[in-house]
Specification:
The structure is a single chain. Helices cover 79% and strands 0% of the residues. It has one domain: Up-down Bundle (Amino acid/polyamine transporter I). The protein is globular, with a radius of gyration of 21 Å. The chain has 417 residues and is mainly alpha-helical. The mean pLDDT is 82. It has 19 helices and no strands. Helix 6 packs antiparallel against helix 15 and helix 13 packs across helix 14. It comes from Caldicellulosiruptor saccharolyticus (strain ATCC 43494 / DSM 8903 / Tp8T 6331). One of its GO terms (cellular component) is plasma membrane. Its main location: membrane. It is a multi-pass membrane protein.
C-alpha cells in the first residue's frame, strides 16, 4: 500500500474541510430557541430518563439527513424541486403551505430567543431585536454561499457553552450513562407529550429542505459523496451532543430541586442558584448564539424550498436582482419574525407549540416522499438506499406517525391530561 506524503495528507484534510458545512450547519441550527427550551424541559421534568431516546433519535437523524444530502449530491436538485417533478403541483403546494406556517412561527421563536437571552444581560428587546434583524439581513444579502457558511460555522463555537454548563452543574455521571443506554418509558401523559416534542424538535421538515438545497448550492460533486456523508454524520452527533448536555445541566439542577420551566430563558435564570452565575450566563450565551443561527437558517430554508417548488431562481451566490423572490421571502420572514416580538403580550409559548405540531404533521409526509425518491433507481441510479437505511428510516416514520396521532387525538379524547 503506497504511503501518503505530508503534503498529500494536508491537501486531503483541507479538501475534506472544504466539503464539510451543510450537514454540520443544518443539524446545529436545529438546536434553536424552541429546541433548547424543549431539551431544558426534558431535563427539568424527567431528569436523565429520556437520554436513551436522544441516543436513538441521533441515529435516525443521521440516516434521514444522509438521504437528503445524497439526493442533493446525486441529482443536483433541491427536495422541493424533486417533489414537484415526481408528485405533482398539488402535493407540492400542500407541503409548501404547511412549511411556510411552521417556519414562520419558528422564525418568530428565534427572535424571541434573541430577545430573551439578551434581556438576561439587561438589553431591551426594543434594541436587540431590530439590530439583530438588520444584522441577519446584512449577512445573508451581502455574502456568497461560502462566506455565509463560514459565518454559520463560526457561530457553532458558542454551543460549547452548553458543554461547560453541563459540567458546572455537577451531574451524577453514573446515572447519566446508565440512562443513556438503558431505556425507561412511562405512559404518563406529560412524559409521552414531551417525548413527542423531543423528536419533533430534533428532526424537522425544514432541515431536509435546507440541507439538500445547501448541498446543491455548494456544488458538491458525486465523487465527494463520502465526505458529504461524514459532514452529515458529524452534524447529527454534534447537535445531539449539545442537546445531551442541555438535558444533563437542567436534570442535575432544576429537576433535582423541582423547578418548573416553560422557556429556555426560564432555564438560564433558574440555573444560577444551583450551578452558579457562570453556568446561568453560559446557558444564556448559548441561547443567543442558537437563536441567531436559527434566525438566519429558517428564512433561508423557506426561501430555498418555495423558490425550488415553483421553479424560481435562488441561491446565495446570486444577487438580489437575479433572485428577487428568494431574497424577498428571506426579508419578509426577518421583518415578520422580528416585528411580532416587538408587539406586547405575544403568546410565544403557544406559537412555538403550534409550530412543533405542524412540523409533526408534515414530517412523516416529507419522510415518505424522501424514501420514495431515494429508492427510485431512475432518480438515484446506484445510489439508492441500502436495506439498513430503509429499515431505520421506515421505523422512524412509523414511530413519528404513531406519536403524532397521539398528539392529534389527545385533545378530543381527553386521555392525556
Amino acid at each position: 500500500m503506497p504511503q501518503i506524503s505530508k503534503e498529500q495528507r494536508l491537501k486531503r484534510i483541507l479538501f475534506i474541510l472544504s466539503v464539510i458545512g451543510p450537514g454540520l450547519v443544518t443539524a446545529t441550527a436545529d438546536n434553536d430557541a424552541s429546541g433548547i427550551a424543549t431539551y431544558a424541559m426534558v431535563g427539568a421534568m424527567f431528569g436523565y430518563k429520556m437520554l436513551w431516546g436522544l441516543f436513538l433519535i441521533t441515529i435516525s437523524l443521521a440516516v434521514i439527513q444522509e438521504m437528503a444530502a445524497r439526493m442533493g449530491v446525486v441529482t443536483g436538485k433541491g427536495l422541493s424541486d424533486l417533489i414537484r417533478e415526481h408528485f405533482g403541483v398539488k402535493m407540492t403546494f400542500f407541503a409548501m403551505i404547511t412549511l411556510l406556517i411552521a417556519n414562520l412561527t419558528t422564525t418568530i421563536g428565534e427572535f424571541a430567543g434573541i430577545a430573551a437571552s439578551l434581556e438576561i444581560f439587561g438589553v431591551s428587546k426594543y434594541i436587540s431585536v431590530p439590530l439583530t434583524a438588520i444584522f441577519v439581513w446584512y449577512i445573508i444579502n451581502k455574502g456568497s454561499y461560502k462566506k455565509t457558511e463560514k459565518f454559520f460555522l463560526a457561530l457553532m463555537v458558542i454551543y460549547i457553552s452548553y458543554i461547560i454548563s453541563g459540567f458546572l452543574a455537577k451531574p451524577e455521571w453514573k446515572e447519566v450513562f446508565k440512562n443513556t443506554f438503558v431505556p425507561s418509558f412511562s405512559f404518563n401523559s406529560s412524559f409521552i407529550l414531551i417525548f413527542i416534542a423531543m423528536i419533533g424538535t430534533t428532526i424537522t421538515p425544514w432541515m431536509q429542505f435546507y440541507l439538500q438545497s445547501s448541498v446543491v448550492d455548494k456544488g458538491v460533486d458525486v465523487k465527494n459523496l463520502k465526505y458529504q456523508r461524514w459532514d452529515v454524520f458529524l452534524g447529527a452527533f454534534w447537535t445531539d451532543f449539545i442537546a445531551f448536555f442541555i438535558i444533563v445541566a437542567t436534570a442535575a439542577t432544576l429537576h433535582k430541586h423541582g423547578i418548573v420551566i416553560e422557556t429556555a430563558e426560564d432555564a438560564a435564570k433558574a440555573l444560577q442558584p444551583f450551578a452558579g452565575k457562570y453556568a446561568s450566563a453560559l446557558f444564556a450565551v448559548g441561547l443567543f448564539g442558537a437563536s441567531l443561527l436559527g434566525a438566519h437558517i429558517l428564512p433561508l430554508s423557506t426561501a430555498y424550498a418555495v423558490t425550488e417548488a415553483f421553479g424560481l431562481e435562488n441561491g446565495l451566490n446570486k444577487k438580489m436582482r437575479e433572485a428577487p423572490v428568494f431574497y424577498g421571502l428571506i426579508l419578509l420572514f426577518i421583518v415578520i419574525g422580528a416585528g411580532v416580538i416587538l408587539l406586547p403580550n405575544i403568546p410565544l409559548i403557544k406559537l412555538m407549540i403550534i409550530a412543533q405540531e405542524i412540523n409533526g404533521i408534515l414530517l412523516p409526509i416529507i419522510l415518505i416522499y424522501m424514501l420514495k425518491l431515494t429508492n427510485d433507481k431512475e432518480i438515484m441510479g446506484e445510489y439508492v438506499n441500502s436495506r439498513t437505511f430503509n429499515i431505520i428510516a421506515w421505523i422512524t416514520v412509523v414511530f413519528i406517525i404513531i406519536l403524532t396521532l397521539i398528539l392529534l387525538v389527545e385533545p378530543f379524547l381527553g386521555v392525556l391530561k
